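sry for the spam today, last one i promise. struct tokens for design, 167 residues
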């Protein structure tokens, strides 16, 4: 049995590359969600005019990795305190967002955000959106597994061990 998580944390290439390596992650796919345009394409999404975020859809095995652990990792690989920005990527298409699929995911996300806020690891307020998942649109084929195809390609994502919750 598998489950799905949908997250946006800036350019989807780097987010996908890091998540695909996590034990328990079965598959990753990059795409667009959270906007107001049907069947968006990269040429439109990159302008910010569609309202969509570059996002990743993660298929995972809940017996091997929990949704909570996926979110904790998500908060380690991008800066959830910058509004509509990750590294050099600026615009609403690069926003930090959790697109929950059900009430359990929503509650887990709220608790995880609250725990990170209380921890003070960022020194600033978390601005990650928490919204119900809407329609998903696959990104073009050349975006899928981009950093596997082009290992020297651009990414502003990396694991920040200092952004770990102390339990």
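last one done:
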């Amino acid at each position: 049995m598998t489950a799905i998580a949908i997250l946006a944390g800036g350019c989807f290439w780097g987010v996908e590359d890091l998540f695909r390596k996590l034990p328990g992650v079965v598959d990753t796919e990059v795409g667009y969600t959270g906007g107001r345009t049907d069947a968006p394409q990269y040429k439109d999404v990159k302008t910010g005019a569609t309202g969509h975020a570059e996002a990743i859809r993660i298929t995972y095995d809940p017996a091997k990795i929990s949704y909570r652990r996926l979110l904790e990792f998500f908060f380690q690989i991008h800066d959830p305190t910058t509004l509509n920005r990750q590294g050099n990527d600026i615009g609403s298409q690069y926003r930090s967002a959790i697109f929950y699929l059900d009430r359990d995911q929503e509650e887990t996300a709220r608790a995880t955000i609250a725990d990170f806020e209380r921890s003070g690891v960022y020194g600033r307020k978390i601005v990650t959106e928490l919204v119900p998942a809407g329609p998903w649109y696959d990104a073009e084929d050349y975006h899928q597994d981009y950093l596997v195809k082009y290992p020297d390609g651009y990414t502003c994502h990396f694991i920040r061990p200092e952004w770990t919750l102390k339990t």
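The chain has a mean pLDDT of 95. ok im logging off now
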